[in-house]
Amino acid sequence: MSYDNNLVGVEIGENIALLTLNRPPLNILTLALTAELRRTLHTIENDERVRVVVLRGAGERAFCAGADIKEFPSVWDDVINKKLLNENLAVDEIELLEKPVIAAMEGNILGGGCEIALACDLRIMSEEGKIGLPEINLGVFPGSGGLYRLARHVGLSVAYEMLYTGKIISADEAKSIGLVNHVVGRGATQEKAFELARTIASKPFEAIKLIKKGVRELWQKPTEDVFRANLEFSKQIFKTEDCAEGVDAFINKRNPRFR
Fold first, then answer.
1. Which residues have C-beta within 8 Å of that of residue 116, sequence separation ≥ 6?
2. For residue 205, how many other CB atoms are within 10 A of its CB?
3. With b meaning 16 or more CB within 10 Å and e meaning fewer, what string describes 29-52?
4. Which residues carry out catalysis?
5. Residue 241: which residues within 8 A CB-CB, separation 6 or more?
6. How far apart are CA 85 and CA 62, in angstroms?
7. What is the side-by-side order of every strand in the sheet holding 62-64?
8. CB within 8 A of 199, min separation 6: which ones?
9. Tens digit of pLDDT for each residue in 47-78?
10. pLDDT digit string (tens) for 84-119?
């Protein structure tokens, strides 16, 4: 099944939703695209057919080259509420979606596009692409989550260098610092993303959702603060039919049939 609007395309099959930022060649984040992305993510969250989301940009020149700077004069009187608030809400919805999100990133990933990528669970990048947060060159900093999400992925020192200098890095360097999971040939990011998505979609869905929620909520806290919460997550998963099926299949040496 597929349906398209002018700004965000949606195709659903195999329990996977393919979302396309549809403003080529650079897929710049406009106010309208941001609003449509939020609406689409809300729909996908409530679609029981979908277990994994793949997010891409139209074309091969850029996954997303950032915010539409030309819109700033029209919102300058209240840029926070008219622009940045909605961008933050859209990017947060990607991270907070209970379903895994894989970014299939052709070409360049810059500014707000990089912030979208940082909110995804996994990132696939094309080998000729560039990625970075050049906002310092405009006299600002990444205002839609890059300020804190980048350090989560690459560590403080690397994040500071990228943020302080606005450095744009290659796909190979992004892979070496842990910013992306895989680097593939041009035009192959969607194929690799779907390979991973099919594997994830075949796993017990309740466990996948709890893994995403658990990692997000627990990883930055000290062990003594998450001990009980971790057991509570386990308590939830051991009550599921898929858990019982997986254990029984292992004991009886057969392939599990997850629901």
1. 29, 55, 64, 91, 94, 103
2. 20
3. bbbebbebbbebbeebeeeeebbb
4. 115, 135
5. 259
6. 24
7. 62-64, 108-110, 130-132, 168-170
8. none
9. 999 999 999 999 999 999 998 888 878 888 88
10. 899 999 999 999 999 999 999 999 999 999 999 999
